[in-house]
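Predict structure. Chain length: 700.
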Amino acid sequence: MSNGKHRQSVQRNLIVNTTEIAKMANVSVSTVSNWKRRSDTFPEPVGTKDGKPAFDYDQVAEWLQANNKEFDDNRTRNLVWEYANLVRGKVETTEGMALFITLLHLRKAANEYGLETQWQTLIDGGDRGSWLSYLDAVDAVEHEAGHALSNHVVTYARGLVESVSVEIIRDVVALVNAINLSKIMTAVDMVIDAMGNGRQAYLGDNGSPLYRLMAEMANAWAKICPNPDPTFYDPACGGAFVAMQVALHNPQYRFALADINSFAAVIAQARFFLQFGKNATETIVLNDLIHNDPFPDLKCNLSVVAPPMGLSASSDTGVTDPRWAYDASNGGGRRPAFPSETAFLQDCVFHLDGVGRAFVALRPSFTTGRSFANLRRRMVADGVVEAIVSLPRRQLRDTSIPIDIWVLSKVEGRNHVHLIDCASATEEVVQQGLPVYLAEPLNGYADGKYRWMDVECADILADENISLAPDKWIKPEGMNPKNICLESTEEISEIRQGLDQVDDESNPLRDLPNSLTNMKESRVFTLRELVDSNEAELIRGNTQSVGRDAVYQEDVITPQILSEGMASLTKSRDVGKREHITEPGDIVFRKLGSTHAAVDVEGGHRMSHTVLALRMKGDDWIPEFVAICLQAVWNQKDTPRNIAGQIDPLDMELPVVSLEMQRKLVEIQHAAEELKHLSAAATDYANTFCNAIRFGAEED
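Prediction complete.
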């Protein structure tokens, strides 16, 4: 929320229509209309936007502040979306993301290096020569200072100036100049989320569970780092998300980063410079790791790498390279080709110092595949494998395959490996004994519900396949005969309850017609029409304490709560005066991607910023019916989406039908849910019965 303080004027004026003003102030569109009609000082329109009167953003913000109206300062978000719309169809998506971040970097350079006059020349419509002159000035300052904090960005910018229309750059630089310097990292995250979502996510993935877990592991290790002058190493840094997380919490580290992708080098360098300015401590090298060592003399205390998947290297690649200590084949010399991940794995081992840790993300085939049995044998025998953490599917935006994290270190005399299973569902309380740099991140990641055991290196080496898969060694939960008996008792009871409900004569599924006939298409309203006519109110979640890096509180409705069920929620007590609280009967739903909707029967809950509440006015709507319709196929596939693939909730539709028809649909939906629960219980019992056949079952 903003206190509405006066903003410095800029040449790029943002315009907002009445719907956007309503979002700013968390009010209905009709309220904004009343402000316009009743206030002589409300700003005059300066144009139109989406067919509606448009107003100058700064004038609206000043009016809201002057009239004691609380509002969300979404200026930065609006600028980012305006940029995305401006370059759509003119440049490729990845290049559009890099262009915006590059210009943010160059603007920061003006502030850091005293180049404000030259920058202003560009804002005033500088030509190609002015741009090249400015880039030369940045180069000269850094050359004199003896550091290279902008070299990749400057090289990329030179190519842009020579190949992209200067008019496009002029429009973009005006948008960049309108962003407050204090919000510059927010703008970077927003443009990555808007333009990088699902497209080459490694360039700047802000949301993947894998990268967040690896960052937490790295930070937990950095806390206990014994080296007073440590170095972080990532030879496939992408957009440097993990490196940035470590840098923010551990200023003592220096960063040695490399990537083969020039866009990655630009984004990584810009992220560091925009955060730390001329105090940044990273070195970034454009490099093909398979053929060249980016830092031959480096010994690091911490390495985190997620290698590119599925690439191959030829048999003669770096045969004499000292990094390749482990043959990737299973006999007879080097294979005709080998996956490049094996090179990154060995590169990390080579660059680790005697007390350092490396965290490497690999496909499960490296943990269990017979093709890599010899690699595993050599590494386990040498004692460099400290732990294997198996993760479930969908840990990365751009792939659904499961991932394993290899934890590597050079500890003499290692006689066991920590094998940790986070992929299998469990209710067991995790046992103590893992190192803190593994236990703390995993407890947060898996809510303390994962299984692990120490397996002797001798036992692993005696295994025919040298398997490092945790589920190979950890006995599955529930295989104990007493557990099997207990589970079967609970499942049988649940099945009997479900059958009783299905057999109930009042079950609406017992009296279905042969077909649906003579039903006419209903009249529909969009949520925008219902809100504008004051028949409904749309409340946007604004609890900031459940943001990207925070722990979700148990009283806050989040997208995860919506998908898993709201039974675990508690009532909100310590509520900020600006936070929105649900009321009984509110329909809460997520606003991004596929919609999950539910009725908050009790109310009294806060909502995260990605959750909305629809409050129907009057007695013409059954809340459960509305929730069903919000999840209907026509509101999923047919609703317009923005550039990031997100649904505008105001475009969603509700059909107008009688209360009797609404009630009938709700009853059928409830019956369908009961059948779903019965089916799930029967499936669980079939699995338990199968386990009983194999392992037996006995009472405690």
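Summary: The chain has 24 helices and 22 strands.
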